[in-house]
Amino acid sequence: MASTFFTAFDLPNSLDLKHHHQIRLNSRKRTKKSPSFYCNSSKSPPKSQPPDLSEEPKKQNPSLADQLQTLSTTILSDTPQKPTQLLTKPKSIWVNPTKPRPSVLNLQRQQRTSYSYNPQIRDLKLFSKKLNECENNKDAFLKILEEIPHPPTRENALLVLNSLKPWEKTVLFFNWLKTQHSFPMETIFYNVTMKSLRFGRQFQLIEDLAVEMIDNGIPLDNITYSTIITCAKRSNLFDKAVEWFERMYKTGLMPDEVTYSAVLDVYAKLGKVEEVMSLYERGRASGWTPDAIAFAVLAKMFGEAGDYDGIRYVLQEMKSLEVKPNLVVFNTLLEAMGKAGKPGLARSLFEEMVAAGVSPDAKTLTSLVKIYGKARWARDALDLWQRMKSNGWPMDFILYNTLLSMCADLGLQEEAEKLFDDMKGSENCKPDSWSYTAMLNIYGSGGNVEKAMTLFDQMSKENVAINVMGCTCLIQCLGRAKRIDDLVMVFETSLKKGIRPDDRLCGCLLSVVSYCEGGDDLDKVIGCLHEANPRLVSFVKLLEEKKLGFEKVQEEFKEILNSTEVEARRPFCNCLIDICRKRNLDERAHELLYLGTMYGLYPGLHTKTPEEWRLNVRSLSVGAAHTAFEEWVGTLSEMVNCDEPLPELLSASTGAGTHKYSQGLANAFESHVMKLSAPFRQSEEKLGVFVACREDIVSWVRSKV
């Protein structure tokens, strides 16, 4: 009888994990709801027997809920949504060349009201100061208002209204003015009040004032609309900002360039690239010359989308309009280059900035260090640090910690120690909790246990609070060194200092369990894990029950994953598979790999082209990689036995590992390949890639038979 490989779930982009281990699952006693596995990975499932027409149908057509129930077992909660496809250019719109295109903005900024000299200004300023310093309640405020030195004329009222700082007192004074009936309330009074409310991000109060103006027939000018829109933007009420912008056009009032730039930013934050570009090009057609702020908005928008063509378009527009970028624009462009993955262009832009005489600030340098670190350009980052010191460029906590984190990612221990000592010697940037965490990460990654423990003791003496990340790095280091007593001490000390174990720390403890030998040491680590996540410990014990069915494992595993942060789900699955391999529970390991793949924890595990099939295990642990390789080889073997076609080349990629201390999977994977006597060999062209040709696979499978 031919073996079976297709599951009822039909996993995408896999070499049909329809595996080898599913044959073993079929042989076990399972309930009726177990997934079915069909023969032959390239053919349709076997046809069912025709129904007996003499019998009445026992079941009606399934409801929609019943149909969706099967689908619900294959998905997890909180699945990240795919980003909307962004377009650099808007759709083309035909314009009649014989008619001028209507203007969409007023090229003249609204002139602000000029104030004449007021001889009472000194008295009113002192009175405003008294109002600002009084208690922030209505009764105290109104009591002081009784002492106003001069009658509230239009000019006096505006001066006091402009001088009030807390928005609550501005509203109280504005409402008091309306009760005095000394003069009509004009647009400017509402604008000044709205401006104060904008500082407090009180959008609802601003909107209420705008509605009051409309009801009372008081005209809204450009400053009014600009204040409403910018307050909505600062309050992250982008839909409201768009609503008031559209209302502005309906009244026939043209926005000035300040309002126009603000609306561009609103649409950019909403991710509406087409609308932004349409507004931009219509503004340009109206004769508008964008300023540096408008270009910063465009650059940030394209940077968020990782759209390098859009960033290049912004640079070309600035050059053609001879707009010189300021520090804000340069910083925005650098961030955009980083998100677009262009470290070389970011470096060139930085050099252009320095050559133009614009001095970088700490934000500029931090962005550049992050870009270099992400690109693993260690030498460029360290050269930049030397330039910072020699040129006296500003350094702050964030910049120092970013440099330390980069050194941790690249395993640059000596350079990190120099940076750390430099921080200790500085007056304004003493090491904080994150600085110590970066050093713990460096020592932990390098296996330097003594230095890590010395640093931990130093933190206690200097009253530097350890955070959960530092605790995780130290526990990982102690676990690899098999210093379990120290591990328990660090864990318990961290709990006493208020650390709440997160999923990453639980994953670290689970990893220690996966390679910890039995006995007291294992019990101690499981005790720590039980205190951090008792449900996870219960599931580990559940995996050892041989009589437990696959459906129960699936149910419990899904609940574990749904209660876990998305970025920690795959490490959890990797560690659980390693634990099963360690305890000779190979069948459970295959079940967990199957479930992990079904729940999307291993995207891209299998890739196919007509010429090559590849198994990508670089994101898997050693045990999970071994399990995936066994599944894959089992599938290939069944295909050979069924005389199904294979590509010319088959390969498995473990990754070479670019970290200084990274050992990678290559050595462990190669040992496992040799143990199975599989015909895969290390590629001479690419590190961490094992290849085999079709003829070798076919010969090896048939020799085993």
Structure, explained:
With 705 residues, the chain is mainly alpha-helical. The protein is 59% helix and 4% strand. The chain has 33 helices and seven strands. It has helices at 21-27, 64-72, 121-133, 138-145, 154-163, 167-180, 187-199, 203-215, 222-234, 238-250, 257-269, 273-285, 292-304, 308-320, 327-339, 343-355, 362-374, 378-391, 397-410, 413-425, 433-445, 449-461, 468-480, 484-496, 503-515, 520-532, 534-543, 550-562, 566-582, 586-598, 622-641, 666-676, 694-704; strands at 4-7, 37-39, 606-608, 612-616, 649-653, 681-682, 689-693. Strands 3-4-5-7-6 form a five-stranded mixed β-sheet. The protein is elongated and about 105 Å long. The model is unreliable at 1-59 and 79-97 (pLDDT under 50).
Quickly list its features:
705 residues, 7 strands, two-stranded antiparallel ribbon, mainly alpha, disordered N terminus, 33 helices
How much of the sequence is in beta strands?
A: under 5%
How many DSSP E strands?
Answer: 7
> What spatial form do the alpha-carbon principal axes imply?
elongated
Give the proportion of residues in helices. 55-70%
Structure at a glance:
It contains 33 helices and seven strands.
Detail the topology: elements first, then pairings.
Elements: E1 4-7, H1 21-27, E2 37-39, H2 64-72, H3 121-133, H4 138-145, H5 154-163, H6 167-180, H7 187-199, H8 203-215, H9 222-234, H10 238-250, H11 257-269, H12 273-285, H13 292-304, H14 308-320, H15 327-339, H16 343-355, H17 362-374, H18 378-391, H19 397-410, H20 413-425, H21 433-445, H22 449-461, H23 468-480, H24 484-496, H25 503-515, H26 520-532, H27 534-543, H28 550-562, H29 566-582, H30 586-598, E3 606-608, E4 612-616, H31 622-641, E5 649-653, H32 666-676, E6 681-682, E7 689-693, H33 694-704
Parallel strand pairs: 4-5
Antiparallel strand pairs: 1-2, 3-4, 5-7, 6-7
